[in-house]
Amino acid sequence: MYPQSPRQDFFAVTLNLGERSQSGADSGGSKYWRRRRLCWRKWKQLSRLQRNIILFFFAFLGVCGLISYINMANHGRAFTSRSSEEQKIELDIPELNPAVLAAPQKADANQGDFPEILPQKTRNSHQGRLVNLQIKAPQEDQKERPHDDDTKNLEEEHDQASNENKSERTVISWRGAVIEPDQGTESPSNKMQEPVHKSSTAEIKNQKKPVPINERQKAVIEAFRHAWKGYKKFAWGHDELKPLTHSFNEWFGLGLTLIDALDTMWILGLKEEFEEAKAWVKTELNFGKNVDVNLFESTIRILGGLLSTYHLSGDSLFLEKAKDIGNRLMPAFNTPSRIPYSDVNIGSGVAHPPRWTSDSTVAEVTSIQLEFRELSRLTGDMRFQTAVENVMKHVHSLSGKNDGLVPMFINTNSGLFTHLGVYTLGARADSYYEYLLKQWIQGGKKENELLEEYINAIEGVKRHLLRKSEPSKLTFVGELAHGRFRAKMDHLVCFLPGTLALGAHNGLTADHMELAKALIETCYQMYHQIETGLSPEIVYFNIHPQKGHKDVEVKSSDRHNLLRPETIESLFYLYRFTGNKKYQDWGWEILQNFNKYTRVPGGYSSIDNVQNPSNPQPRDKMESFFLGETLKYFFLLFSDDMELINLDQYVFNTEAHPLPIWVPV
Ligand code: DMJ
């Protein structure tokens, strides 16, 4: 009988307890005690086994309850502590990674081809280098760019040193040499700040002695005079000389050659010619003309030429003219995206894109910054600077770049890159890269986005565009078109060795200088391997060993020479920074070939065929940059006067017009 009853009793006890809990609140005290006694009696009636089972069951429930309580408590603690760690990491991120551009991502299939010129350090090493450069940089925009305490201390020291330098005010003399303050003629504007002085005292002492003009420089002066004679006689006040037909060519109708050549005459010491040209600027140059000009070309040649002549001569006439043209160019920025139109009518103030597209060229919209920024600094009118810096910021933020390499076109409506997938350091992109570095230098080496963008781009060049030719293993910069490499190099790309050398001089890593040396050798060979000793506009390199083939090949459509400056420009930088005379000798060889094949009685002329020494076919055109750039760089290359346009005080715009490097106020 026992076996059945306890089970029933057990349920009875449970039910009773349950009933109590539901109705206990209404029960009187006696009823409660009666129930307790009843329960106790029932409990006593149970066998020991039944009681043990019941006790074990409750004990088991208790243990389970305790375990799940501990688990829940642990889980809660773990959740809380993970959140705060995540929070800490999130808070740490901005400290660890200050706003920098994304690192190059793709591995390069061709890296193995260039062991000696590949980056010696990773991109992080550039970031490390950046920190050092930030320390050296002068003050400005402090609000926008917080620095750590160590950096601040070092910057204060730098400030002190710079202030001490401020007393050493200098003026640039005829031939561009630094002279004592009291020898200057007219003071530049009050807003102008002195160029930064970095040369050692010993260097300055040595360089302050007048350095006589050497035979090679005299040859450059003779070449200039010959060209100028033709210009004066047949094209005075017009844009370009036609030296064969003794006539002129009009592009903007603004005396382009004359303005482009002003600072060259100053640097070459051609005082008489300079004064004549200045008189024309004063009395004849009128920008109030109903004429369409190209924003980029008129900025680099006219605005740049006027600004640098103002700095060298200190004559406010040139600043007034610079302000005038600067204002007249501003409507170009009135576009939906603020990326400027290519053309603007400087008389009516109406700007427009070319007739066939609403695109502008990337190099054009990003190579007007040095000039407009300098105009703002001199005038105090920030509209110029703001307009061009907005363009840089916008381009900086755009997608469509390939490891820092940019496409060639940008749409003025959408502000986006167009014709994606083609990357070159030649036409339509070239000076974008040049101005990244040069703006950084102009602004006192503190605009780090520009430097980051430049370093990324050079890494992109190494990764995607460098190859070696056969049989001489010349390092060259080719092009990438939709993933396919083309062994094509424009002569325009020969600006790159000079720019790389300038970057290395300003503290970038030594591999930039190594690449500069390799590339200038190639640019020289682009002259040396050609029948006239003059480079064609475009060359193709052989990249596969083939018997009897040279490194360089030329297509018939590319065999012209426009008297371009880029190789001479780079030879100048390489000579300045290395002192290796071979660069002067290479330049001398090229000058002689210009004299042999491009000089005509009326001046110098572009030629159609660099491969035909018996008939190079002169084109009847002398470009303004022959006087503005090519002959100026020849003269500077042959000079041993390191103070002649000191590269720690001046930065050349892309048309060879030197503008001062800013220093902290
Ligand atoms: C010049 O007008 C400038 O150097 C520009 O950057 C490129 N083209 C010519 C010279 O070749």
Automatic annotation (TrEMBL):
Basic and acidic residues bias: start-end ranges: 138-169
Superkingdom of the organism of origin: Eukaryota
Binding-site residues for Ca(2+), renumbered to this chain: T654
Disulfide cross-links: C494-C523
GO MF annotation list: calcium ion binding; mannosyl-oligosaccharide 1,2-alpha-mannosidase activity
GO process terms (BP): carbohydrate metabolic process; ERAD pathway; N-glycan processing
Pathway: Protein modification; protein glycosylation
Membrane topology category: Single-pass type II membrane protein
Gene3D superfamilies listed in its UniProt record: 1.50.10.10
Residues at the active site: E297 (proton donor), D430, E537 (proton donor), E566
InterPro entries associated with the record: 6hp_glycosidase-like_sf, Glyco_hydro_47, Glycosyl_Hydrolase_47, Seven-hairpin_glycosidases
Enzyme Commission (EC) number: 3.2.1.-
Region (Disordered): 105-207
Chief subcellular location: endoplasmic reticulum
Signal peptide: none
Enzyme type, top EC level: hydrolase
UniProt cross-references to Pfam families, sorted A to Z: Glyco_hydro_47
Cellular location(s): Endoplasmic reticulum membrane
Catalyzed reactions per annotation: N(4)-(alpha-D-Man-(1->2)-alpha-D-Man-(1->2)-alpha-D-Man-(1->3)-[alpha-D-Man-(1->3)-[alpha-D-Man-(1->2)-alpha-D-Man-(1->6)]-alpha-D-Man-(1->6)]-beta-D-Man-(1->4)-beta-D-GlcNAc-(1->4)-beta-D-GlcNAc)-L-asparaginyl-[protein] (N-glucan mannose isomer 8A1,2,3B1,3) + 3 H2O = N(4)-(alpha-D-Man-(1->3)-[alpha-D-Man-(1->3)-[alpha-D-Man-(1->6)]-alpha-D-Man-(1->6)]-beta-D-Man-(1->4)-beta-D-GlcNAc-(1->4)-beta-D-GlcNAc)-L-asparaginyl-[protein] (N-glucan mannose isomer 5A1,2) + 3 beta-D-mannose; N(4)-(alpha-D-Man-(1->2)-alpha-D-Man-(1->2)-alpha-D-Man-(1->3)-[alpha-D-Man-(1->2)-alpha-D-Man-(1->3)-[alpha-D-Man-(1->2)-alpha-D-Man-(1->6)]-alpha-D-Man-(1->6)]-beta-D-Man-(1->4)-beta-D-GlcNAc-(1->4)-beta-D-GlcNAc)-L-asparaginyl-[protein] (N-glucan mannose isomer 9A1,2,3B1,2,3) + 4 H2O = N(4)-(alpha-D-Man-(1->3)-[alpha-D-Man-(1->3)-[alpha-D-Man-(1->6)]-alpha-D-Man-(1->6)]-beta-D-Man-(1->4)-beta-D-GlcNAc-(1->4)-beta-D-GlcNAc)-L-asparaginyl-[protein] (N-glucan mannose isomer 5A1,2) + 4 beta-D-mannose
Compositional bias ranges of the Polar residues kind: 184-204
Regions that span the bilayer: 53-72
Keyword terms: Calcium, Disulfide bond, Endoplasmic reticulum, Glycosidase, Hydrolase, Membrane, Metal-binding, Signal-anchor, Transmembrane, Transmembrane helix
Keyword Transmembrane helix found: yes
Stated family: Belongs to the glycosyl hydrolase 47 family.
Primary role: Involved in glycoprotein quality control targeting of misfolded glycoproteins for degradation. It primarily trims a single alpha-1,2-linked mannose residue from Man(9)GlcNAc(2) to produce Man(8)GlcNAc(2), but at high enzyme concentrations, as found in the ER quality control compartment (ERQC), it further trims the carbohydrates to Man(5-6)GlcNAc(2).
Name of the protein: alpha-1,2-Mannosidase
Gene (UniProt): MAN1B1
